[in-house]
Amino acid sequence: MHLSAILSGLLLIAFSAAPAVAADGKTYRVYFLGGQSNMEGYGHTAELAPAWTGEHQAIRIFNGHTAADGEAGGGVGLWAPLRPGYGVGFRSDGRRNRLSDRFGPELAFGVRIAELNPGENIALVKYARGGSSLALGASHFGTWAPEFSEANGRNQYDNALTAIETAFSTADIDGDGHADRLIPAGIIWMQGESDAYTQAPARAYEQNLRRMMDLLRAALRVDDLPVVIGRITDSGMDEDGLMMDHIALVQRAQAAYVAADACAAYVSEIDEYQHSDDGWHYVSADYIRMGRAFAEAVHALAGTCR
């Protein structure tokens, strides 16, 4: 994507991110959740305890439709109450959401962050694409690299910007007839597996991660917006004991990024989670653990960064 397209996209968001607020409208704390498949979510809704299966009317979510690089429709969606079904297989055409039978960390994240902020209204904007990389050319599933220029020039970064722009330009996100105020509160990032396959993307990961978080903070118009990074892990379900040959480089890069940024935190407890049989994703219970851990990490940052 060309620099002019990046700048024009950010300017469009800047002018649309603060809709007029009516007297009876609500103020929402908004968290952006992004990354690849373990943010997209492979938890099975059928395995959820009854307490997690309902609809949370007070917590709103905008889940951007996932699309490959060069495809139309990436990032479109509409606001709805948080519930299971926003995992892999979720679809939206911007007029109707089609829930899947999966969920990701957004479910427990939304519930826990609401518990940690009693009396506050919570909203989530999510865009994630399984297999996507930060490095250009590192994955055929898609890239977040802003310099992507193939086909129509749209990639995962553009799709995320579309989700953010559309979500923030919606005046009334809860359908009560009054315009709401949306205040960015944090970025949650779970990604890096696709950059850990080969050495060059893994070595560039810290630089690419810093650039992407800077761009997302710019899109959300808060320079010191709290950022939480989830540690990627390896199931070891491969002949040589590693699914990702260069995972150690990416893990060090994630830790180095967090150490250098006073408004960033690293969720490393993911090392303890159990992988599903496919070797890449986690069991359903651990997507609940992940969401809670992300919420607690970003909440702890809020007192020191903003």
Record the SSE blueprint.
Layout: H1 3-16, E1 27-35, H2 37-40, E2 43-44, E3 56-63, E4 80-82, E5 91-92, E6 97-98, E7 102-103, H3 106-116, E8 121-128, H4 156-168, E9 181-190, H5 199-203, H6 205-220, E10 227-230, H7 247-260, E11 264-267, H8 284-305
Parallel strand pairs: 1-8, 1-9, 3-8, 9-10, 10-11
Antiparallel strand pairs: 2-7, 3-4, 5-6
Helix pairs in contact: 1-4, 3-8, 6-7
Give an account of the 3D structure.
The chain has helices at residues 3-16, 37-40, 106-116, 156-168, 199-203, 205-220, 247-260, 284-305; strands at 27-35, 43-44, 56-63, 80-82, 91-92, 97-98, 102-103, 121-128, 181-190, 227-230, 264-267. It is globular, with a radius of gyration of 18 Å. By secondary structure, the protein is α/β, with parallel strands linked by helices. The chain has a single domain (3-301), classed as SGNH hydrolase (Rossmann fold), CATH 3.40.50.1110. Helices cover 32% and strands 18% of the residues. Strand 10, helix 7 and strand 11 form a beta-alpha-beta unit. Residues 1-22 have low confidence and may be disordered. The chain contains 8 helices and 11 strands. Strands 4-3-8-1-9-10-11 form a 7-stranded mixed beta sheet, with helices on both faces.
Q: Per DSSP, what share of the residues sits in E-state strands of 2 or more residues? A: 15-25%
Estimate nothing, just give the exact number of structural domains.
Answer: 1
Detail the poorly predicted runs. 1-22
Shape: globular
CATH class: Alpha Beta
The first-to-last residue Cα distance is 32 Å
Major β-sheet, in short?
7 strands, mixed
The side-by-side strand order for the widest beta sheet comes to 4-3-8-1-9-10-11
The number of helical runs is 8
CATH-level-4 superfamily name: SGNH hydrolase
Mean pLDDT: 92
Q: Output the structural class.
A: alpha/beta
Do you know the CATH topology?
A: Rossmann fold
The value of Rg in angstroms is 18 Å
Number-wise, the strands total 11
- The SSE order reads HEHEEEEEEHEHEHHEHEH
Q: Which CATH architecture is right? A: 3-Layer(aba) Sandwich
Helix coverage percent of residues?
25-40%
